[in-house]
Each structure stands twice: as structure tokens, then as C-alpha cells.
């Protein structure tokens, strides 16, 4: 017999079933998929946000590549802005490239001249450091700043490939077209089904008169999440660390190969 592929990530139907069990509605007569979908997505965002703030890397995406065109003029007062809807500023405005549509914020950027077979060099993050330098554009982008939901560059005199590593929005669940509707999607973190289900149930059960139980479930969700966060801390304690080597401005933090 062929082996049926499986995944360790909890599905929408498994999450809904656990919520119904917590709310004493095993038959799903009150806590249906349409009734629970918003609370489930809220719980997914809550878990993702809390774990991300604690350093868990499940919801981190890498290898998103964009090409930043050369600037139109060399002028220290001009910048290049990469947004969710396109690129503008000191380049010809266009609908592409764009920021990834699931990005919450960028973490690390690397660069290299477009289509040149060389290692990518890590760029300097100027966010919260007084902003981009006010200097004439050079051959390299070198610096970037995350401001008003866009990545801002001083710009470069040549076309530049940029790799973006970023924190991502947790996968959102949706309703199927079945009758009755079911919940499609899967959880982005392997071990977060209990914390997420308790959190969702804490929002849902007060709507049916269970406010005290909802408060208990909220406390239980926080405790379960703290256990997940403890696992993150334990992993970080066993991670090897080393001092970064001294280097030039453009090679700060090292390089990588695409």
C-alpha cells in the first residue's frame, strides 16, 4: 500500500475539534467552524507574535530576493523606498519589486551587484540609529532602514540584488466550501495547538455564558505559551556563540552565498 504523507502540524479541523471539546460541544452544534474561525485566527496571531518576541525562528522566512535598480540621480537628499505595493523614490517608480506580502518586519539584508557570481555581503541596519547617512550614492547600497512599513535605501549607482530575511505573519485559516463549512489550513508551529486552542476557547465560551471558564482558559493558554517560550530559551542556551571578527564596513557580519 502507498504511504500517505503526513505532517506534524495541527490542521484546522484538529484545532476546531479541541476547541469544541474544551467548550463541551463534542457534536459541534454551537461551536461551529464559522463561529470559531475568527477566534482561531486571532489565536494563531497571538501565538505567533508571542513566540516571535521570545526569539523562536519558526515564523522566519529567508531567501526572498529583490532587485533594486540604480538611482536616477546622485543626491544625498534622495532615497529609494521598497514598499508592499512597489518601489519609488530616486528610481523609476514601479509595481515591482515589492516587499513580501507576509512580512511583518525585516531582520537581516544581504546584497551583491545584480547577476554577479559572488558572495552576498551583509548590509548595515540603520533602524533606530538616526536613519540613513546623508552621503552621495556609491556602488553599493550598504545601509537600510525600516521606516513606516517600508525598507528605505540610500540607493546605489548600479543594480543590486538584495536578499531579505524577515519575520512572517502566521498562516491564517479559512473556511472551506463544504456544507457545513470546515476549517482549512495548518498551524505554523508544531507544538502550539494546546496554547492556541485554549486561547481561542477563552474568547468563544464567554459568548455562551461561560465567562469564568473563559478566564481560566486564558490563564491556561498563557501557561502553555510560557512552556513553549521556555523551550526556546533552552535551545538558545545550547546554541554555540562566538565573537564576530573585525572587518570593513561592507563586510560587517560576514557574507553568504546565494
Give descriptors for this structure.
258 residues, alpha+beta, five-stranded antiparallel beta sheet, elongated, disordered N terminus
List the helices and strands and how they pair.
Elements: H1 12-22, H2 33-53, E1 60-68, E2 80-82, E3 87-89, E4 103-113, E5 120-122, E6 124-125, E7 143-147, E8 150-153, E9 160-168, E10 174-175, E11 183-184, H3 193-204, H4 211-237, E12 255-256
Parallel strand pairs: 6-7
Antiparallel strand pairs: 1-9, 2-3, 2-8, 4-5, 4-9, 5-12, 7-8, 10-11
Structural summary, described in words:
- The protein is of the alpha+beta class and 258 residues long.
- The chain has two domains: 12-56 and 170-236, no CATH class; 60-168, no CATH class.
- 28% of the residues lie in helices and 21% in strands.
- The chain is built from four helices and twelve strands.
- It has helices spanning 12-22, 33-53, 193-204, 211-237, and strands at 60-68, 80-82, 87-89, 103-113, 120-122, 124-125, 143-147, 150-153, 160-168, 174-175, 183-184, 255-256.
- The strands form three sheets. The protein has a five-stranded antiparallel sheet, with no helix packed on it. A five-stranded mixed sheet has the order 3-2-8-7-6, with no helix packed on it.
- The longest helix is centred in the last third of the chain and has 27 residues, at 211-237.
- The relative contact order is 0.21.
- The model is unreliable at 1-5 and 246-252 (pLDDT under 50).
Number of strands: 12
Q: What is the share of helical residues? A: 25-40%
Strand line-up in the sheet with most strands:
1-9-4-5-12
What is the global morphology? elongated
Mean pLDDT: 87
The span between the termini is: 40 Å
How many H/I helical runs? Answer: 4
Unreliable stretches (pLDDT < 50, length at least 5) are 1-5, 246-252
Tally of structural domains: 2
SSE order in H/E notation? HHEEEEEEEEEEEHHE
Which structural class do you get from the secondary structure elements?
A: alpha+beta
Per DSSP, what share of the residues sits in E-state strands of 2 or more residues? 15-25%
Rg is 23 Å
- What can be said about the biggest beta sheet? 5 strands, antiparallel
Amino acid at each position: 500500500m502507498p504511504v500517505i504523507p503526513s505532517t506534524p502540524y495541527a490542521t484546522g479541523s484538529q484545532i476546531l475539534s479541541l476547541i469544541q471539546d474544551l467548550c463541551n460541544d463534542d457534536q459541534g452544534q454551537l461551536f461551529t467552524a464559522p463561529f470559531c474561525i475568527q477566534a482561531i485566527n486571532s489565536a494563531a496571531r497571538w501565538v505567533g507574535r508571542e513566540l516571535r518576541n521570545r526569539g523562536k525562528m519558526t515564523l522566519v522566512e529567508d531567501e526572498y530576493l529583490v532587485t533594486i535598480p540604480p538611482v536616477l540621480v546622485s543626491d544625498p537628499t534622495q532615497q529609494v523606498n521598497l514598499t508592499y505595493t512597489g518601489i519609488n523614490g530616486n528610481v523609476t517608480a514601479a509595481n515591482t519589486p515589492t516587499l513580501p506580502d507576509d512580512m511583518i518586519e525585516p531582520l537581516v539584508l544581504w546584497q551583491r551587484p545584480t547577476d554577479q557570481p559572488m558572495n552576498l555581503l551583509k548590509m548595515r541596519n540603520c533602524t533606530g540609529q538616526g536613519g540613513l547617512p546623508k552621503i552621495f550614492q556609491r556602488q553599493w547600497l550598504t545601509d537600510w532602514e525600516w521606516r513606516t512599513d517600508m525598507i528605505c535605501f540610500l540607493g546605489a549607482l548600479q543594480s543590486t540584488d538584495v536578499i531579505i530575511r524577515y519575520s512572517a505573519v502566521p498562516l491564517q485559516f479559512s473556511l472551506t466550501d463544504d456544507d457545513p463549512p470546515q476549517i482549512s489550513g495548518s498551524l505554523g508551529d508544531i507544538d502550539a495547538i494546546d496554547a492556541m486552542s485554549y486561547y481561542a476557547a477563552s474568547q468563544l465560551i464567554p459568548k455562551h455564558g461561560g465567562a469564568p471558564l473563559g478566564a481560566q482558559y486564558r490563564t491556561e493558554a498563557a501557561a502553555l505559551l510560557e512552556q513553549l517560550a521556555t523551550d526556546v530559551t533552552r535551545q538558545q542556551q545550547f546554541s554555540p556563540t562566538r565573537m564576530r571578527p573585525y572587518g570593513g564596513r561592507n563586510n560587517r557580519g560576514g557574507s553568504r552565498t546565494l
